[in-house]
Design brief:
Elements lengths: L1 E2 L1 H6 L40 H23 L9 H8 L5 H21 L11 H11 L2 H12 L6 E7 L5 E7 L13 E4 L6 H4 L3 H11 L3 H9 L1
Parallel strand pairs: 1-3
Antiparallel strand pairs: 2-3, 2-4
Helix pairs in contact: 2-4, 3-4, 5-6, 6-8
EC number: 1.15.1.1
InterPro entries: Mn/Fe_SOD, Mn/Fe_SOD_BS, Mn/Fe_SOD_C, Mn/Fe_SOD_N, Mn/Fe_SOD_N_sf, SOD_C_sf, TAT_signal
Keywords: Metal-binding, Oxidoreductase, Signal
Length: 231
């Protein structure tokens, strides 16, 4: 299963409440929105994600989404909204300018969530009740990794794989094209794997599956994921 812009527009009547992470730097005040600092040093994710990739990914790509969003949203109805509100509201519109705003707001939000899940110091495997739920859904941790790789192959071109909940409110890995994300369709966002080429090509070239496996095996702080599930 994967989510496209058309899916998001069709889900305009969704009433579920999307999880907004408890960490204060995910939601921001009104414009101009400020890109939050990384919660680690740029070299801390190496060798899984190199310092060069983090520098380009955070310092160029992520920054560009914030810069473009601030320009596009200035003087619009979005100017007084927090970032996650912009994502939810812009997702409802088919207007060309709103689509541009959504794309940049969603990618700004996605990347904050992405960096935040790599905060060093927590367990790199789900534990306790969360571990049991992962095992129940995917068989075991290797099953989760295999499912993430398989789902990534359903996304044509750029996008994300998110650990979220499906239409039956069951834990699921779902592919989202481009900058689309679970919060835009009223779903929680527990864990996001960036499968845009800028996230991995410097380090892995075309070996996307290897990138996904390495990130899930070595970088995710599952305490962060557990906090998101408890929010």
């Amino acid at each position: 299963m994967h989510i496209t812009r058309r899916t998001i527009l069709a889900a305009g009547a969704v009433t579920a409440v999307a999880t907004v992470f408890p960490r204060p730097h995910v939601a921001h005040a009104a414009l101009p929105l400020t890109q939050p600092a990384l919660p680690f040093a740029q070299a801390d994710l190496a060798p899984v994600i190199s310092e060069k990739t983090v520098s380009l990914h955070y310092g160029k790509h992520h920054k560009a989404y914030y810069d473009k969003l601030n320009t596009l949203a200035a003087g619009t109805r979005y100017a007084d909204m927090e970032l996650v509100e912009i994502v939810k509201e812009a997702a409802k519109s088919e207007a060309a300018e709103d689509i541009k705003i959504f794309n940049n707001a969603a990618q700004a939000w996605n990347h904050v969530a992405y960096w935040d899940q790599f905060v060093p110091g927590g367990p790199n495997r789900p534990e306790g009740d969360l571990g049991a739920r992962i095992n129940e859904t995917f068989g075991d941790y290797d099953g989760l990794i295999k499912r993430a790789v398989d789902v990534s192959d359903t996304v044509f071109g750029t996008g994300w794989v998110w650990l979220t909940r499906d239409d039956d409110n069951k834990l699921a890995l779902i592919g989202y094209e481009d900058g689309n994300n679970p919060v835009a369709v009223g779903r929680p966002a527990y864990l996001g794997i960036d499968i845009w080429e800028h996230a991995y090509y410097v380090d892995y070239e075309n070996r996307k599956a290897e990138h996904i496996r390495s990130v899930l095996e070595k970088l995710v702080n599952w305490r962060v994921v557990e906090e998101r599930m408890s929010a």
